[in-house]
Each structure stands twice: as C-alpha cells, then as structure tokens.
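Section 3.1: Structural characterization of target chains.
Under the original work plan, the team committed to producing a structural model for every single-chain target entering the pipeline before any wet-lab resources were allocated. The record below documents one such target. The sequence was received from the expression subgroup and is listed exactly as submitted; it comprises 358 residues.
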Amino acid sequence: MQQIQQLKHSDGTGGGILFLGSVDWANLMCDVAWAINRACGVDGFTIESPARVWVDLTHPFGYPQDIHSTNTLPLELIEMVDAGLFSWIVATDHDYTTVFLKAHLLGMFKSGKQQTNPYVAINHCGIAYRKQSELLDAQDLQFAQARFISPDCFGLTPRARHTVPLRNAWGPLVDQLRPSSLQPLKRAEDGRYHVVLAHSPSNNTQKGTELILPALQAIANDAEIAKHYQVEIDLIRGVPFTEAIERKSRCHIFVDQIAPEVGGYGQSSIEAMAFGAVTLADIHCVPQSVGMHFARPPIHHVLDTHDIVDWIKYILLTDPPCTLNVYRKHAWAWSERNSSPDVVANYWVDTLADAMKR
C-alpha cells in the first residue's frame, strides 16, 4: 500500500497509526489495524506493522476472543512514540479521560517535538455519539484546547485533533471462512430449502433477545413457511469467538438487535453481511450523515417482535426462494464494496492523509 507513505511527516518520520482500543471497541480497532497491516503486506502484528493497537479492557460481555497477540506493551509504545514512529493516534469517544491519560503516558507533547507529535483522531461511534452528538462535539473542542497538568505542561493544539467516522472491516476469522462467492441455499432431503435464522447476543439485556427469540420461533412454527423451508434457529452465545464466526457463516437471516437505546448496527451485522446474511436491526438512531462517508448498509429496520416476523415472512414467502436470494446478494455485494479489509484499509489511510493536509 503506497498510500501509507502519505502519513509520514515532512521530515520523513512517522507513518504509523496507533489505535487505542477499550471495552467493546477493542476488537473493532484490532480488525481495522489488521486490515491496514494486511494491505501493507504485513502478516499480523510485528515490529514492521504500520498499525498497532493498545488494548486495556476487552468487551465485558463479548466472546472470549483472544486479542492479546495484537496488543503492544505500553513501555514499547512509549519508546515508539518517542522515536516519532506514529503519525496518528486514533481513539474512540466513549472515554475522553482515558484518551488524556494515555496521551500523557505516551509523552506525546514533549518540548521541541511539536512538528512530529502524532495527530489525534477521535473516532465517533456507538450509542454515546448518537445520543449526545452536541455534547461530544463540544468535548472535541475542549479536547483540542486542553492542557495536560504535568511538569512539562504542554498543550494539545487544534491541529492535533480530527474526527473520523467509524468504518470497520470484517476481521481475519471472517476473511478465512468467507468463500469466494455467495453460496446457494441447500435443500433438505424432502426437497425444502434449509434456512438458518441466527441471533448472536453479546449481552442479552442490551440486544432485546427476549423479544427476538419468540419472533424466530414463530417463523419456525409457521405452516406456510414450512411448505418451502426447513427452518433452523441458531442462538450463538457463550462460545469461543472462532465458533461464533463459524456458526454465523452458515446463517441466512440474522437479527442483530431491537434495543431502542442502541438503535444502530455493530460488528455482528458487519460479520453476518460478509457471509451474505439478510440482516435485521433497530437502526432508528443511525444518522443520514453516514451516507456521506460510505453507502448505507442494506439492514432492514425492525422495532419489535411483530416487525421481525413480518419482515422474515415477506423475505421467505415472496416467490420463494428468489426474494431471499436477492436480499442475500444485496448484503454480499455491499459487504464486498464497503467492509472488505482492503477497502477499509484504503478508507482509513486516505482519510487520515487528507486530514494531515488541512
């Protein structure tokens, strides 16, 4: 990836990107960093990796994904920042205090290094920004003008702060399992099509699982649907991450969440669509501005149990199985154009390079 050279400072230093991952965004940052490294011809996370990740807390409710191999020890990071190897530090907006503390620990603003200090990008994502965009916009300005209370007491200049819309790639496990083309539906022994309905809650209380499962069961018990399909329900939870992805790769219709306090889609939807699954979720909080940065995903908006049942009935019973296959192709094509590792790597590097020119 020649674009990575655009991230170097005028004196030839820098070029690297450090992602600060915490809680549920830790895995997302690991996937983005992996995509950038892969595009640069670097396998995984090595001393030559242009993208690194500092993970402090993993998702408390998520799958037991092992992301420790992607993590870099803080002491090593301090040495790398001090050597001017990073042009960017990218953090999420969920905890500004953590961003301050980590930036201070990394010694980003030492005297005489103003020109080679890393830029800082605040990556707006998740419920926090959807619910409190004005507050977080104000915090952005405070972040840009803040001064660390330290012996050096150097300021964080406005040139060091940018906002970057989140765009995530499907991860390495998805990449390994994803076939080269969308796989056709399989038929059961009785000639009906075998279709898998899946839900993968990292946290039951935050995904609306108690409302989703009755909808899936209603579909499985529907006499009209049973004429055309053999329906399997797969509730994916409490299993290793590798198993979760493998089971998700077999699903045809995926329900992410119907929790109004979430109101958006996450990595589960990105992973499901990568395998061509028709995806449903409550996305009422996703702003129209998302379409300014990449095409809105073909996720079908559902608010409750009845919406889920109605949508799935429409997909399965309208000219079966043609309508289901059309929607599966939409999900597959969107994923190929918008969340494949190379596409996401180019997006991040180009976006950060453009920000350095402002």
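The radius of gyration is 22 Å.
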